[in-house]
Design a protein that fits this description.
Layout lengths: L39 H13 L1 H21 L5 E11 L5 H4 L5 E14 L4 H67 L5 H15 L2 H18 L30 H7 L1 H22 L4 E15 L2 E2 L3 E11 L5 H69 L5 H36 L8 H9 L21
Antiparallel strand pairs: 1-2, 2-3, 3-4, 3-5
């Protein structure tokens, strides 16, 4: 029994801090964070993507194949039982005197055969555990695919909405320029404006109109990408998309991030790496168990009916019970090489797990820093836009009264448009950072895999991380 116990997988070497550096709320991560947009259309796109996305379907099929592998591997722990039957007939033209020693025979046999490899040293049990951990990694792969698809859907939806807002701003400026052209035409008829002013404004308007085509193309591209993410044919799909004003976009504030250790329970890629590490540890245990004897048991219970030279004999039963063992002798080199290779794969999986943890922490910290900087930038951009709008209004009044020329007015209109586009770009980046943060925190798959989410919530700590060394931040100096 002691030999068949699996050793515990190695523990990560990463030190996890008690909190993130970036300021954020420590509340639980919203499992349906995209509903912060309060947009039923976005909800429909997310639901369609979860139901029809090909990448999610492929991940689900990999999980099904892995579960079948668990059943196949676990069956080696149990006896195999087979029902065998046969009928044979042997006749010859030999003389009767010869047939006394070589009789004609008719034989009918039926038997039950049972074979069992006694897993005394745990080789088969370790192999079955390895396939089970691989299946768990595949299940987390499904959750990871769901998280990635949802994040990409929201990004493309945000991109479509922001592009539609850019197009609206540009069209509003063009409409204003057409109004100014009418004003110039009236002033020109009165001799108060020149052809130069008219041609200058037309050139400015034409330059703005030249950008409409690229924005409309960007809208189509984002819509087609949404269709593909939701498993639809972009050539045959009527896109259900309606522009929403920026006032309807969610306000981005400090977002909940929880504790760094929560990532190890919530992020699908970390849980998959954890399961893969446990699988390699089980594979190492299976390779080590190959050094010990293998024990086999077999039994046969049967009955046969025999006819010799036309004389039917009474049915007779038979049985056979055997025990055997196999001890490796001259193949120790191959076994030791397999152990070394399995040990190296385990250490590789541990290093990969450590790398995944560090990358996850880096992604969260980087996104928090980016969002903090973008929120500060947004305040300055909004203040600049308000100042430019006031200057434009003043210039328009002066131009109508003939107290200023067209060039200053066009320059101010151009500046206001640039400021408005900069504010919209900042809002887009804030929303992208929000999506990125929720993705790096591993939130969003729980609604679609409730059973897995419940099991993850019940586990107080990942299996391969028994104790995380938690240290406080250094007080001054370098860590």
């Amino acid at each position: 029994t002691a030999c068949s116990q699996l050793p515990a997988p190695p523990v990560t070497r990463v030190t996890v801090m008690p909190a993130f550096v970036g300021p954020a709320s420590s509340d639980a991560v919203d499992a349906q964070w995209w509903r912060r947009f309060q947009d039923p259309v976005l909800d429909q796109w997310v639901a369609a993507a979860i139901a029809q996305n090909p990448d999610i379907h492929m991940a689900q099929q990999r999980w099904q194949a892995a579960k079948a592998g668990v059943q196949a591997s676990s069956s080696r722990l149990l006896p195999t039982v087979a029902l065998n039957g046969s009928q044979s007939s042997s006749h010859s033209a030999l003389p009767d005197t010869v047939k006394k020693g070589m009789p004609d025979t008719n034989a009918q046999r039926i038997s039950v055969n049972a074979d069992w490899q006694l897993d005394v040293f745990g080789a088969n049990r370790a192999a079955a555990t390895a396939t089970l951990r691989d299946a768990q990694a595949a299940e987390w792969g499904v959750a990871g695919s769901q998280l990635l698809v949802v994040s990409n859907v929201v990004r493309q939806y945000v991109l479509w909405q922001v592009t539609a807002e850019r197009l609206r701003l540009l069209q509003a400026v063009i409409a204003s320029q057409r109004t100014t052209e009418s004003l110039i035409a009236r002033r020109q008829a009165e001799g108060l404006a020149s052809d130069f002013d008219q041609s200058l404004l037309q050139a400015e308007r034409t330059q703005n109109e030249a950008q409409i085509g690229s924005l409309q193309a960007a809208l189509s591209v984002a819509g087609y990408r949404l269709a593909v993410l939701s498993g639809q044919n972009p050539s045959a799909t009527v896109l259900n998309l309606t522009p929403r004003p920026p006032s309807a976009w969610p306000q981005v504030q400090q977002l909940p991030v929880g504790q760094p250790a929560d990532l190890l329970r919530r992020r699908p890629d970390l849980r998959a790496a954890e399961a893969h590490l446990a699988a390699t540890s089980a594979q190492l245990a299976s390779a080590q168990a190959e050094r010990y004897p293998q024990l086999f048991a077999s039994a046969v219970w049967g009955e046969q009916k025999l006819t010799l030279n036309g004389l039917a004999l009474a049915a007779s039963s038979y049985r056979n019970v055997a025990l055997a063992f196999s001890q490796p002798l001259l193949n120790r080199g191959r076994i030791n090489a397999n152990i070394k290779a399995s040990s190296a794969r385990e250490q590789e999986a541990l290093s990969q797990y450590d790398s995944n943890i560090l990358t996850a922490l880096e992604q969260v910290e980087s996104t928090l820093a980016a969002q903090r900087g973008e929120l500060a930038r947004a305040e300055q951009l909004q203040a600049s836009l308000m100042a430019r709008q006031r200057s434009r209004q003043h210039a328009e009044s002066l131009y109508r009264e003939g107290q200023t020329g067209l060039m200053p007015l066009l320059e101010l209109q151009r500046g206001v448009l640039a400021a408005e586009l900069a504010v919209v770009d900042s809002r887009q980046q804030q929303l992208f950072n929000m999506v990125q943060l929720y993705q790096t925190l591993g939130g969003g798959w729980e609604s679609f895999s409730p059973d897995l989410a419940q099991r993850a919530q019940q586990s107080t700590a990942p299996a391969v991380v028994n104790l995380f060394p938690v240290v406080s931040a250094p007080q001054g100096g370098q860590p």
